[in-house]
Amino acid sequence: MTPTNFPRIIYFNPGANYSENTDFRNPPMNEEEIHEIPEFKFNQNQDSSEKKNCVICMEDIEQEENVKLLHCSHLFHSECLNKWLLEKSTCPMCMTSINS
């Protein structure tokens, strides 16, 4: 028997939201896992004229808004990212797995 003949084992996360569009290679995160991602207030340097944008909602990230920074260095509104991670556990920009 070769490894390709083995049945595929899928881990189901009991607190996650599964749908017909679920990518089981990157299953949804549960709320406890999502809240482990640090949240902070956005504070853009006064000298910087470059606007930061949340690619999930397509809105600018404003001073003092709650944001989360992923290990791939992409920044999002906390609320937007939390909703995204209930569906997929990948970065919305580069699709890097959050769990890796």
Detail the topology: elements first, then pairings.
Layout: H1 31-35, E1 39-41, E2 53-54, E3 59-60, E4 66-69, E5 75-77, H2 78-85
Antiparallel strand pairs: 1-4, 2-3, 4-5
Would you kindly provide a written description of the structure presented here, covering whatever features stand out?
The chain is an alpha+beta fold and 100 residues long. It has one domain (22-42, 52-100): Herpes Virus-1, CATH 3.30.40.10. The chain is built from two helices and five strands; from the N terminus they run αβββββα. The protein has helices at residues 31-35, 78-85; strands at 39-41, 53-54, 59-60, 66-69, 75-77. Strands 1-4-5 form a three-stranded antiparallel sheet. The longest helix is centred in the C-terminal third of the chain and has 8 residues, at 78-85.
Write a short abstract of this structure.
This protein has helices at residues 31-35, 78-85; strands at 39-41, 53-54, 59-60, 66-69, 75-77. With 100 residues, the protein is α+β, with helices and mostly antiparallel strands.
Task: State the main characteristics.
2 helices; 100 residues; single chain; Herpes Virus-1; three-stranded antiparallel beta sheet; globular; two-stranded antiparallel sheet; 5 strands; alpha+beta
